[in-house]
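My current task is to audit a protein record that another person submitted. I have pasted the whole thing underneath without changing anything:
***
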Amino acid sequence: MAGGNCGRGAGGEPEICHSNLRAGIEMRWSVLEENVGASAPSGNLGALQSDFERSPAHRANMLDPRITGVGIGVAYWGDMIYVAEEFLAG
């Protein structure tokens, strides 16, 4: 996302988008979910996480009792922070 592969906003900032979750996963899985977000300033990670927690869909992904694995990616562009949280159950 931070590289601009999801498009760019009016100010030139990279936009957020969901990935092709199935691409590259070779293990058997039964549940695959993703949260993506961006925030500025880049040090405002707590606010971004709070936004995930206040969103019913994002919160459901984080609290899904079936999930057995989590991956988190963080990238920066200028003063923006981009986060992708991946949730998987085998």
Remarks:
- Residues 37 and 49 are 9 Å apart (CA to CA).
- The chain has a mean pLDDT of 89.
- The first strand starts at residue 31 and ends at 39.
